[in-house]
Amino acid sequence: MNNTEELPNDNVEEIVLPNDELAENATEETVEEQEAVEEISETEKLQNELAELKDKYLRLYADFDNFRKRTAKEKLEMFQSASEKVLGDLLPVVDDYERAVANSKEGEISEGIALVFSKLNAVFSAKGLKVIEAKGEVFNADLHDCIAQFPVQDEDAKGKVFDVIEKGYYLNDKVIRFAKVIVGS
Hints:
Blueprint: H1 19-81, H2 84-103, H3 111-126, E1 129-132, E2 144-150, E3 161-166, E4 168-171, E5 174-177, E6 179-184
């Protein structure tokens, strides 16, 4: 006898489908799977498109916000410096007046003219015009224009402004005219 025993097939039922039915069931399952894959891929496509549109929107919004801020800043700077040309043209007149006062005898310049000049200075101050203090300061090429050097004996005076030939001016913390100075060397 063989070591292998044959088991009876009483409990096993075989379902036999004709080839057409097998093919039909397989086709239905494949179509359902394809539809599911198509639904997933269509959903993924829509999600990707939505993500791209959100990204474009955020970038466009950021660009617009930057543009708005830059335009507001430029407008503010324009208002602050609108009078720069006029004030710059008036500075030689102020220089002439200061030279006239410095070289005049007492009582030669009337009190009325001095009052007009003080009002003019008040208007300049209100517009943001300030004098660049230079005498005794360390020479700074961003503020001063050195037109000559003067030999000095004191080591502390070397590299410092010895004399101011023409005052420099700020307009709202922007240099509109450099101070013309003589520097100790």
